[in-house]
Amino acid sequence: MKLKAQTPKILQLAALATALLTLTAFHPGAHDTERSASTNPITDRPPATTAVGTVEAFHSALVRGDTQAALALLADDVLIFESGGVERSKAEYASHHLHADAEFSMAVKRTLESRSTVGSEMFAWVTSVEKVTGTFRNSTINSRSIETMLLTKSAAGWQISHIHWSSAKTLKKFR
């Protein structure tokens, strides 16, 4: 049964997420309300030798339509949650949503609103909030995207082990 095979991985990710959430809550800057945002989300990239750099390199690859570069940053057993669905491996993601995600990323503008990072030498948790605008498949996009990525470090460098994406339409404010 596929669920039983995934249970240890899910439990490991849940334990990692719980540990990182606890660290986030007690981090001295965890409750700061002001966050810096990149002024140019494509060129203001940290090197991919860091967890944040790996997240940025993944998005940059999608924006360029370079799906092979994006896949290279994912662990083979990556677990991806998106819009109520789940993909349980790099191969499954490559055969399902990867190309649509790249197409979407090429069509819209993402503006980073905030980012938090917690981690150690071997594990990291990167959460990002972005405003996403543009036109995709003849639909106007004006949304807020929330992303959580869990990363693990090996001799090969940082790899994305889990992604959770959610988004909602941005409502117009009335005065």
TrEMBL record:
InterPro entries: DUF4440, NTF2-like_dom_sf. This is DUF4440 domain-containing protein. Keywords: Signal. The lineage of its organism: Bacteria, Pseudomonadati, Pseudomonadota, Gammaproteobacteria, Methylococcales. It comes from the Bacteria. Residues 1-30 form the signal peptide. Residues 55-160 form the DUF4440 domain.
